[in-house]
Amino acid sequence: MCQINTDPALAQVGxxxxxxxxxxxxxxxxxxxxxxxxxxNVTLRCAAKGNPEPRIMWKREDGAMIVTNTRNPEPxxxxxxxxxxxxxxxxxxAYLCIASNGVPPSVSKRxxxxxEFPPQIHVPNQLVGVPTGDNVTIECFVEAFPKAISYxxxxxxxxxxxxxxxxxxxxTVYRIHMKLTIFNFSRDDNTTYKCxxxxxxxxxxxxxxxxxxxxxxxxxxxxxxxSKSEDTPSGAQGPRAEEKFxxxxxxxxxxxxxxxxxxxxVPQPAYPTNHGIAVADMTGVSVxxxxxxxxxxxxxxxxxxxxxxxxxxxxHPSCLLTAYP
Length: 325
Description:
- A hairpin with a 2-residue loop joins β14 (about 150-155) and β15.
- By secondary structure, the protein is mainly β.
- It is built from 5 helices and 23 strands.
- Helices cover about 10% and strands about 40% of the residues.
- Strands 4, 7, 8, 10, 11, 13, 16 and 17 form an 8-stranded mixed β-sheet that branches. The protein has a 5-stranded mixed β-sheet with strand order 12-19-18-14-15, with no helix packed on it.
- The longest helix has 17 residues, at about 300-315.
């Protein structure tokens, strides 16, 4: 109070309030790392002091929702404690305890929650068919914490990287994606492969059976003939006429000699026939019986002429007298 000695006396009363930014008390808070078995209950605590009294809220570092099993999932939980019941591997991660009272700066503490459980393996395809000579990749998905040791086994022997096999793993917090590539699949690879995972809480394995699929060889294309561009070089002459049409030996040539006739020059019948027999005339030209028959009158034409002859005699008897005087 401030007072001035006057008549009357004057006085002024003032209020002084000291503000203190928040500060987290580690002795009253949970440790920075907490390990708990799956299906257990856990409570996270965060204590802070300051003036005014700090407000405390919880958030997950990865931005995921907080599931307390007592209410709906929430992005932010208010209060000095965070109780999680029946924790699972989805609760695993870092939680931030943030204290603020309107006096900057706000402070936070990071608490990591690890949920421990034995390895579990998921095999998408337990039976795989592989064509002979192909490359094949098989895979397993592992979940475990603490982090598991994972490897592949064939016939009770661990598989190491080589020209035949290539093993790969892709890891997150508690997940492992295992892949094994087998090159140039053969009959010797026709067996069962195991993916194995183990940690301090247990061991498990998954089986994948590979079966060889025989693929018959592809049929080769067979051509009945070749094109000119394939058989005859550029600028070269084709075969001679005698080579295209071989000469046939015929008896009855001039002066008793043998006559050679080119089949391309022999008259062919107007319709195809399989009954032609080659004969020779006096000039040595080959004529078939089928082509000789085409030179004779058709039987139907002869019959028509015989039917029309009496009619012509009745109409013009003079034609008969003229024909036979």
